[in-house]
Amino acid sequence: MQIGVPKETWPGELRTALVPLNAKKFIGAGFSICVESGAGEAAGFRDADYQEVGVSISDRATTLAAEIVLRVRKPAAEQVASLKSGALSISFLDPFNEKELVESMASQGVTAISMEMIPRTTRAQKMDALSSQANLAGYVTVIQAAFHSPKIFPMMMTPAGTIPPARVFVIGAGVAGLQAIATAKRLGARVEAFDTRPVVAEQVQSLGAKFVDIDLGDTGQTEQGYAKELTPEQIERQREGQKKVIAQSDVVITTAQLFGRPAPIIVSADMVESMKPGSVVIDMAVETGGNVEGSVLDQVTDINGVKVIGQGNLPSDVARNASEMYSNNLFNLLDEFWDVESKTLNLDPEDEIVQNCVITRDGSIVNDTIKNIYNGA
Q1: Does 187 lie in the same domain as 53?
Q2: Neighbour-count burial for 180-205, b at 16+ CB within 10 Å, e otherwise
Q3: For the domain that residue 268 is a member of, what is the CATH number?
Q4: For residue 264, which of 48, 57, 86, 122 sits 20 to 30 Å off, Cα-Cα?
Q5: First-to-last C-alpha distance (Å) of the chain
C-alpha cells in the first residue's frame, strides 16, 4: 500500500505531514512512500533525508494518486478530483466549517479522516494531533511575548537595582495554556492563570502558578475534557473577575477556544486599554474569531501602546518539532489499524476511534456529529 505526501500549499504553512524517521518505520511495516519534492524542506528535512530511508521523491500528481494521502492542512478544493476513489485522506479538515469540501470528498469516494476529531481517550492519546500541536503553540506564545515585551521575564538583583519579574496572566489551562504557564515560569515570570474548569486548578498550581478563582457557578467540562460553553452571564462574570488581574499584567495570553465554534470574546477593548503601555497580549484563538477585542489575524495591533498579537498557525513557528510530533501522531494512527501480516488497513466502523475521526466513507458522510450539523439537527 502506497502513502503519498504532497507539499503543503497553505500560505505560511512550514510543517510537513511525514518526517524521515516515521517514513522509515512505515517502510519497515510494509508501506511504500512517495513524497513531493521539497515537502519537508521548510521544516528542515531535505529530499535526500527521505531518499536515505527508502522514500521515492515524486511530483504532486503522483503523491495525490496514492492509496493513502497524508498532509497537515485540508486539501484544496481543486485537489479533491486528483484523489482516487477509495483512497484514504488524513489531515486537519475542519469538518464543522467545511461542508462543501467534505461533501466533495464524499462524492469522490474518498475516506477522509479529520485529525481534529481524534477522541481524547487514553487509547487515542498517542494520535491526538490537536494536543501535540497545541502544546507547541503554548510554548511559542511565551517566546513571542518575551520578544515583544520591553521587560525581561525573570527577577534580577543587580548593583544597579532590583528588577521585578514580569507578570504573566494565562487565560485557559488546557494543553496550550499549561505549556504557556510552564514556559513562562521557566523564564522566571510571575504567572497567574484562570480556567472555567476549577478541576484544573491543581495542575496550574503544580507548575508554580497562582490560580485565579472566579466564581462562575456551574461550569465543568465535556466528556473529552474540553471546557463547556459559558452562558452570556457567565462570560460577563469572567470578564469582571479578570479585569483587575489584566490591568496589573505585563503579558496576557488567551487560549479559550470552543471546538467547532467561534472563539468567545473574553478580553474586551477596555481591558486592553487598562494595561500599561508596553504590555503584550497574545490571542491564541485569533484563527477562530479571537478572544481579544481588536486582535487581527496575522497582525500586531497597537491599542494605546499595548501590543495585541494575533498570529495564526503558531506551531509552524517551530516547524521541525511540530512536524515530528504530527508525523508521530499519523504513524500511531495508521499503526493502530495496520495488519503487518496481511498488509491491510482495517478501519473497523465499530471502533470508537474510527467512529469519531472518519468523516466520509464509501461515498457518504458517515460521522454522526457532522451529519447532524449539516442536516441542521
Answers
A1: no
A2: bbbbbbebebbbbbbbbbeebbebbe
A3: 3.40.50.720
A4: 122
A5: 38
Q: Nearest-CA neighbor of 54 among 70, 74, 36, 31?
A: 31
Tell me what pLDDT residue 230 has. 75
Range of the domain at 217: 134-312
E strand spans, the chain:
2-5, 32-36, 56-58, 68-70, 88-91, 111-114, 156-158, 161-163, 167-171, 190-194, 210-211, 251-254, 280-283, 300-303, 306-309, 338-339, 344-345, 358-361, 364-365
168 Cβ contact list (under 8 Å, min separation 6): 142, 145, 153, 184, 189, 190, 191, 192, 249, 250, 251, 252, 253
Q: Are residues 151 and 266 in the same domain?
A: yes
Q: What is the pLDDT at residue 9?
A: 95
Residues 308 and 180 in one domain: yes
Cell numbers describing residue 101? 469540501
**Which residue numbers are catalytic?**
120, 125, 128, 131, 226
Residues 270 and 151 in one domain: yes
Final residue in a domain of this structure, among 280, 312, 344: 312
H/E element, 323: helix 319-337
Number of domains in the chain: 2
Are 166 and 251 in contact by the 8 Å Cβ rule? The answer is yes
Q: Splitting the chain (377 residues) into consecutive groups of 10 residues, what average pLDDT does each group show?
A: 97 97 97 98 98 98 98 96 97 95 97 96 96 98 98 97 97 96 98 90 96 77 60 81 94 91 91 96 96 96 97 97 98 95 92 97 96 83
